Amino acid sequence: MTDRLEPAPRDDLFAPPEPGTLSRPAPQPQPVPPAHPYAAGPGLVTPVPAVGQQAGTDRPATPEPSAGHSTTEPPGVGDREPAARPPARRPRGGGAALVVAALVAGLVGGVVGDRVSDRVDPDRPSDAALPVSGTQGDGAPAAPSRPAGSFADIAAGVLPSVVSLEVRREEGVSTGSGFVLRADGYILTNNHVVAGAATRGDITVAFADGSEHPAELVGATADYDLAVVRVEARDLTPLVLGDSDEVVVGDAVLAVGAPLGLESTVTAGIVSALHRPVQAGEAAQTAFIDAIQTDAAINPGNSGGPLLNAAGEVVGINSAIAQPPGSMSATGSIGLGFAIPANQARHTAEQLIETGRATYPVIGVLLDSTYRGEGVQVATEAQQGQAPVTPGGPADQAGIRPGDVILAIDGRPVSMSDELIVAIRARQPGDAVTLRVRTGEEERDVRVVLQEQASQ
């Protein structure tokens, strides 16, 4: 059946939310050979200015003197006769004294320099040698260590399992991040990182040790913005997918990836909010994410990399960043990054590995994006041949009718179409949800069993 969760098709449905704009931090475009001029396409962002030539940071040239500007002294000063200088005095025997003093100073300097050289000569033992940081008592280098659970300790454990991906097409090259899912070569990333390879293009995976492997696309879904690729490698170290339902606001997190193409970059922050309804991407490939919000710095190129908790477990997949109003592309972190919860990623990745495709849950209604009022309204009329309520679908069986207003899902109020869609897609097909529905002046709770819909 067709996707019945989408709001009624309208031009303004996919307009960026105000006051900020949500955008994917996604593949970092690279310079394109002259023979293949760059053409922005799906998954590509505006190229980042070269290092040292970033927009708005060029130093102004030294200003030329303006017309009529005088470099002479002020009037009345330069016209004066210079004051007469007193005749120079000839030293009385001073010339010889200065020469002798210079010779003495040179001799003393040479002696002192020789003594200092003796002291720092590495081949000579010194009684004044002091302990150096990073050495043991006998002077041997000490192995660096960090407390268990520290950011440095977590980073050391996960970096070998975090990769950067390069997708090369005729239009150009884009990069992103990912991490090892299974020891036999399966790697998880964002769909928009590898979207260009779905029809044509080569994927290369680079590991932290510098090794590179060609990869094949196993499966992808634009609805959840997730993809799985595989390399011919064995004995890889997978990262552990944690329980994202246990994440709370204020938890410390690390974001790992390749922002701006800089591999093995680690940034730290906290979980700043949960259940953010994020709609990222173009209208044709929109992902609805029940996102974890973090202030850990996420930039273009971080897409697909892991968001880790204090135990080194993956609790999210970094996927989108917010931009100030008026920004049309991802320019960098402003402290508002969004990650796909790990529980959703686990379920979707398992489907992609098994079948190459994913599914998502629906209730079988069209939503009216023009409605202004409390809750979310079911469309009153058919749109492009689709009925407002799918006959025989979950909502129809629960007694929901065109024009009804959905006020809450499982006790959580909803006021925008995106909020309801995201809340439903955070569940699984076959799950039951309770919707608070208003028909006219009457309100009631209805139980709806979610139906499965094939993903794009």
UniProtKB/TrEMBL annotation:
Gene3D superfamilies noted in UniProt: 2.30.42.10, 2.40.10.120
Keywords tagged on the record: Hydrolase, Protease, Serine protease
Listed GO biological process terms: proteolysis
Biased composition (Pro residues): 26-36
Region described as Disordered: 1-93, 115-148
Keyword Transferase carried by entry: no
Entries under SUPFAM superfamilies matching the protein: PDZ domain-like, Trypsin-like serine proteases
Coiled-coil stretches: none
Pfam families in alphabetical order: PDZ_2, Trypsin_2
Positions with biased composition (Basic and acidic residues): 1-13, 115-126
Residues annotated as domain PDZ: 364-441
Protein name: Peptidase S1 and S6 chymotrypsin/Hap
Organism listed in the record: Isoptericola variabilis (strain 225)
